[in-house]
Amino acid sequence: xxxxxxxxxxxxxxxxxxxxxxxxxxxxxxxxVGAVAGAVTAALGFGVVAQVVVFAAVSVxxxxxxxxxxxxxxxxRPGIATGIDALKGRQAVVLERVDGHGGRIKLAGEIWSAxxxxxxxxxxxxxQVDVVEIDGATAVVM
Length: 142
Known about the structure:
Blueprint: H1 5-23, H2 26-43, H3 48-76, E1 91-96, E2 104-107, E3 110-116, E4 128-135, E5 138-141
Parallel strand pairs: 3-5
Antiparallel strand pairs: 1-2, 1-4, 2-3, 4-5
Helix pairs in contact: 1-2, 2-3
C-alpha cells in the first residue's frame, strides 16, 4: 500500500498538534499549519522540494508575524487589582482627623485607620483623600 505524500503531511500536522495541546506552546500550532500547507502543496502535485519549502516558509512566517503580535496583546493587558492593591488610588472620606500619627477614614465601605503621607499635612472630617498605599492595616493618604 503506497500512501500519498499529502497524507504524510497531514499525519505530521496532527503529530505537531498533539504537543500544542499538551504544552500550550503556540509554535507547535504554527508548525502544524505549515504541515497542512505542505499537504496542500503535495496534493496539488508539486515535488518534495516545493513541499518542504512551502512548509518552512509558512511556519517561519507564522512564527515571525503571529508570535510577536500575540506577545504584545498578552503583555498589554492590564492586570486586575485585587485585595489591598485594589484600594490604592481610591478615594476615601475622613471620619476622624488624619495627620502623620493617625486618624480614621471610610474606604470602600469600611472604616480604616489612616495616616497622612506627609507627616505635616492634616485632613479634617468630611474631607476627601486619596489612598496612596496600604501599610499593614493603615491606609496612607494624601
